Amino acid sequence: MATTVDIVSSSYSGEFAGKYVSAALLSGNTIASGLIEVKPNVKFKEVLKRVEIDGIVADATCDFNDTSTVTLTERVLQPKELQVNLELCKTPFQSDWEAVSMGYSAHDNLPKTFSDYFIGQMSAKVAAKTELDIWSGTAGAGSFDGFATLLAADSAHTGSQKITGEAVDASNVVVNLGNVIDAIPEQLLQNENLYVYVANNVYRAYKRALGGFAAGGQGANGYMAQGNNQNIDVQMFDGIKVVPVNGLPSNRMIATVKDNLYFGTGLLSDFNECKVIDTAAILGDKNVRFVMRYTAGVQYSVVEDIVTFGLGL
């Protein structure tokens, strides 16, 4: 059965101007901005090896004495197969404003302008869904476990690096960001790839606090006495990069180096490929199918190098 198409308030009164308008879609900024490591060409699964070396330096002697302990552990990155299948019937478009672009034959085509637009919308929806799943997805239908889900279930992620958290606003965001920074392992603090990934509401609260007019703000009137009437370019906290990611739920934060977080897929180009199949010649119907197939999944390598805030909220 074809996907239901409802054309509301159609007003065909001449040639269509050639432009569709839709609401803005959530951007998949994590991959687009290079905020985590991307591992393409993972056909089934890939093992992320972790090497730990203890006691590597010892006092010198004339003999060879094995003084260190090498421990190998692993985590598995296994992308999940996902798909988008939609089918549209051409008939509803025959009475719409783009009817002429379908051709005058009874064996017509879906309007090209709409087809191009529809593919763009599908791709944007997939990007938005992938962004959400990377950080907070669960392994249900049409989804995969995100970093927050994996970390919340990891028994090795405990102690001071798993901060309970609270609702974040401009009055407490500076304190809470400070608590996250203070919990980061010392050996990571000078790593140029260290990030604090924050939910959008945390990022806005930090910007508002810097603008002033909040108990946690930088003075009653904010930076250069401009209050909130300024465009504050928030990039860091205590010299550590702070980045908002659209997929993290409100009041959550994750701090680690970006090369500790992995996104795995088969081919990155699969995310940009949509097959448009007119089944008229094969099935004798009036339907057009839109098909996308891709794989996606995430995994981290060293849990001891991760600090989280608010995963249990």
Give an overview in words.
It is a single chain. This protein is of the alpha+beta class and 313 residues long. It has one domain (29-309): Major capsid protein gp5 fold. The chain has 6 helices and 13 strands. The strands form 3 sheets. It has a 6-stranded mixed beta sheet with strand order 5-13-9-6-8-7. Strands 1, 4, 10, 11 and 12 form a 5-stranded mixed beta sheet that branches. Strands 2-3 form a two-stranded antiparallel ribbon. 27% of the residues are buried. The model has no long low-confidence stretch (mean pLDDT 82).
Could you state the order of secondary-structure elements as H and E? HEEEEHHEHEHEEEEEHEE
Q: What's the name of the CATH homologous superfamily?
A: Major capsid protein gp5
Identify the quaternary structure here.
Answer: single chain
Q: Please report the first level of CATH classification, the CATH class.
A: Alpha Beta
Low-confidence stretches: none
- Strand proportion, as a percent range, falls in 15-25%
The number of helical elements comes to 6
Counted beta strands? 13
Main β sheet profile: 6 strands, mixed
In total, the number of domains comes to 1
Structural class determined from secondary elements: alpha+beta
Radius of gyration: 26 Å
SSE order and pairing:
Elements: H1 29-32, E1 37-39, E2 46-54, E3 69-77, E4 80-89, H2 112-136, H3 147-153, E5 162-163, H4 173-183, E6 194-198, H5 200-211, E7 236-237, E8 240-244, E9 253-257, E10 261-264, E11 275-278, H6 280-283, E12 287-300, E13 307-309
Parallel strand pairs: 1-10, 5-13, 6-8
Antiparallel strand pairs: 2-3, 4-12, 6-9, 7-8, 9-13, 10-12, 11-12
